[in-house]
Design goal:
The chain is of the alpha/beta class. The chain folds into 2 domains: 178 residues, Flavodoxin domain (Rossmann fold, 3-Layer(aba) Sandwich), CATH 3.40.50.360; 60 residues, no CATH class. The chain is 49% helix and 17% strand.
């Protein structure tokens, strides 16, 4: 089992490096580990008919590892250019292209990854506005296309002037360091997703019936089809809202 840390920050010893180091420090001793600093590499896209030994070397490091830990700051509400450039240049390695231009997961399918990011804004502002969401979405989008399975994410807001990680984040890093040390054969979130879906539907059905009851006190509806139509519409609206939250909004913001 091997864990590969990927530091995609401009500062080799900054707060993002500390986040990554804290995770890697808590990886089980039985696991092999390596950390690479992307700024040490001259990463450029592969050009037709030309060799690109840098991309070949990085691809080999990714292939050798079972779990990748990406550490990158959030700038301007987006993923840092260092990691984005890495993803862009590695695209032919992450996915295979079909004749019509569609993609399917490439050689790294079923590996796992952990995302780490930080931002200057306060914990409250990040929680309310989701400043770091786009960074995490970009990582998730690339990894999903590559067939790589998400293990989790850690967000560190309020880093302006910060010199050392807060104790709570050190504990969280330690937790994930131990978690990624366990060999995974497949996506172990399937059962969790079914449980979430069950409770999601149960709550939505309860809320829908409650809203229908309130409407019944205002408007008399005796028709079966009107009751059915109102239930369907209300349920659809509520379910769409909660699905949007879980799909696009829910990230570890604090």
């Amino acid at each position: 089992m091997k864990i590969l840390g990927v530091l995609a920050a401009h500062q080799e010893a900054g707060i993002n490096a500390q986040l990554l180091a804290e995770v890697m420090k808590n990886v089980d001793d039985s696991c092999e580990q390596e950390t690479i600093y992307l700024e040490d590499y001259h990463i450029t896209p592969r050009k037709r008919g030309e060799d690109n030994p840098v991309l070949d070397e990085l691809s080999e490091k990714l292939m050798e590892a079972d779990v990748w830990v990406f550490a990158a700051p959030t700038y301007w509400r987006e993923l840092s250019g260092v990691l984005k450039n890495f993803f862009d240049c590695m695209r032919p390695k992450f996915v295979y292209f079909k004749e019509n231009g569609d993609t399917i997961p490439g050689q790294f399918k079923n590996k796992h990854y952990l995302s780490l990011t930080s931002c200057y804004v306060s914990t409250f502002e990040n929680f309310v506005t989701g400043v770091t969401d786009n960074s995490l979405k970009t990582i998730d989008r690339v990894m999903s296309a590559a067939g790589v399975i998400k293990t989790g994410e850690i967000v560190l807001p309020g880093t302006f002037g910060m010199k050392e990680l807060p104790g709570s984040k050190k504990k969280l890093c330690a937790k994930y360091g131990k978690k990624i040390s366990t060999k995974k054969r497949k996506d172990d979130s399937t059962v969790k997703r079914y449980i979430q879906l069950f409770f999601m539907i149960a709550v939505m059905a309860l809320l829908t019936m409650g809203i229908q009851q309130l409407l019944g006190n205002l408007i008399t509806i005796n028709s079966f089809w009107l009751n059915y139509a109102s239930f369907t519409i209300i349920f659809f609206v509520l379910l769409s809202m909660i699905l949007h939250f879980f799909t696009f909004v829910k990230h570890r913001r604090r």
